[in-house]
Amino acid sequence: MLLAMRNVLALLLAGFTVGFKVPIRAATAATALRAVSLPRVSDGENVDLGAALARTTEKTMLCFGTHAADFNTVEYMQRLRVFLPKLQAKGISRVLMVVNGDASQVAKLAGLLDMPVMVELLADPAGEAGRAFGVSRGFRPDDERLSSFAKLFVVGIGLGPPWGTLWPVMRGYLGDRNGRREWIQASLQQGQSAGRWPDPLQLSEDGERVIANAFDNTPLLGGWGVRPFELATLRLQNLIMQAQNWGQLKPLDDRCLTQLGGCTVVGAGGETLYSWVDQGLCDLPDMEDLIEAL
Questions:
Q1: What homologous superfamily is domain 2-293 in, according to CATH?
Q2: Contacts by 270-273, CB closer than 8 A, 24 or more apart
Q3: So what's the pLDDT on residue 6?
Q4: So what's the pLDDT on residue 16?
Q5: Domain residues of the chain, as ranges?
Q6: Rounded Cα distance, 68 and 82, in Å
Q7: What is the pLDDT of residue 21?
Q8: Spatial contact of 214 and 201, defined as CB atoms under 8 Å apart
Q9: What is the pTM (predicted TM-score) of this model?
Q10: Are 197 and 50 in contact (CB under 8 A)?
Q11: Where are the beta strands (DSSP E) in 222-281?
Q12: Which residues of the chain have pLDDT under 70?
């Protein structure tokens, strides 16, 4: 029954994503971001994004998060943290991530998530770089009659455009037989070691090893790649963290409340190898698919 419901939802929601095209600006990021400079959180030095991409000799990855208290930013960071070794093994020698917040907000979130120093975090309180790249600005971004929270609500319940929220959110509850849970378990482990709840893992005393995962005991579906409610549990853990730190992480510019993110990987000379723009809440690229595409 659960599998049948999942398949029906997938078919229904496929209609919202068929024909989606990456914006031209996102497909030519080195050009779109020419002369766009942001301060690096670690040292305050300005980084010219267009130049950084254009001067690439190996491979460079650039991710655009949302604001610092948003699901998409948190999940981008969590995925980068887990997949960084695999990304490096595929020749990515530099990883940059833009967050729509000031330096103190970005540093706070990075500390909460134990981000590796290899990832260069850049602060963009107004979200200008993401808009130059071509990210979605959310539902009716130029309609001043609607509050930003009303626009966020529309996208959050799966309406749009953009239309890409419902299936990524539902997948967190329904699971995915062929999904890959490496980053989910690792992120749950990091959060649980930091004292966050829910805590579905049994960890070693030092928190370095996962001894058991409660989702392994899911009736009938314990062998799935991502079990029902497994990803949703991580998102609940993230939501509680975001709520507890809302005052420090909330967006400083109302436009960033609804603005989404994206990412690109470029090769030598800034040639685009991969490009993605989020089409809803929790609608992020599958890092395994990204790695396989390089």
A1: Glutaredoxin (3.40.30.10)
A2: 270/29, 270/30, 270/31, 270/50, 270/53, 270/54, 270/55, 270/56, 272/27, 272/28, 272/29, 272/30, 273/59
A3: 46
A4: 40
A5: 2-293
A6: 19
A7: 58
A8: yes
A9: 0.91
A10: no
A11: 262-266, 272-277
A12: 1-21
